[in-house]
Amino acid sequence: LTRSRSAVRMAMERTYIMIKPDGVQRGLVGEIIKRFEQRGYKLGALKLYQANEDLLRKHYGDLQEKPFFPGLLKYMTSGPVTCMVWEGENVVRMGRQMLGETNPQASAPGTIRGDFSIVVGRNICHGSDSVASAEKEIKLWFDDNEVLAWKDHSHAWVYE
Ligand code: IDP
Ligand code: MG
Question: Which residues form the Nucleoside diphosphate kinase-like domain (predicted)?
């Protein structure tokens, strides 16, 4: 019984969450951090950062041919972003759920995009779409020594 229970237990994951320049400018950094903290996820890394085009071309490599890509580069370099690593059970999928849909008008109220944004080109936040892209994005945006392992005293109150 113990073995089958631990076999179905979700893996602990890490995800890369980024508050885009509009989210920073509009004073939503605290609000977005608060939602991940209050859910019970654990902060692994955090910094305010001025992204450059080279980094964004790597981050958004799959979108380079899209007509909106030049505008996306301009948007994402228009001011500082807030880079974060959040850790916990199923956090990649749950993080995307907390962000909402890519298009804010398809995002349910209660999600970050659904509560604070209106158009896709100013949708406030980024979240990794898979465990593999999370690991890739964490490496891209952070040096190894910026991502910390630490003991969260709430762990036993968040997980059974
Ligand atoms: P995601 O951020 O929800 O993963 P992606 O399809 O990966 O969505 O697109 C990355 C980002 O590119 C979006 O969050 C948004 O900022 C921007 N974007 C996507 N589609 C459009 C568009 O049609 N017009 C303008 N910007 C777009
Ligand atoms: Mg994406």
Answer: 12-149
Q: Residue 129, Cβ neighbours under 10 Å: how many?
A: 16
> What stretches of 20-74 adopt beta strand conformation (E)?
42-49
Residue 100 pLDDT exceeds 90: yes
The interface pTM score, or ipTM, of the predicted complex is 0.98
> Residue 72, exposed/middle/buried by CB under 10 A (0-12, 13-18, 19+)?
middle
Q: Average the pLDDT over 139-150 and give the result.
A: 98
Angle (CA) 73-29-150 rounded to 5° is 105
Backbone angles phi, psi at 156, to 5 degrees: -70, -10
Nearest CA to ligand 1 atom 20: 120
CA pair distance 9, 22, nearest whole angstrom: 37
92 CA to middle of ligand 1, Å?
17
pLDDT, tens digit (0-9, with 9 covering 90-100), for 43-78: 999 999 999 999 999 999 999 999 999 999 999 999
Largest CA distance in the chain: 55
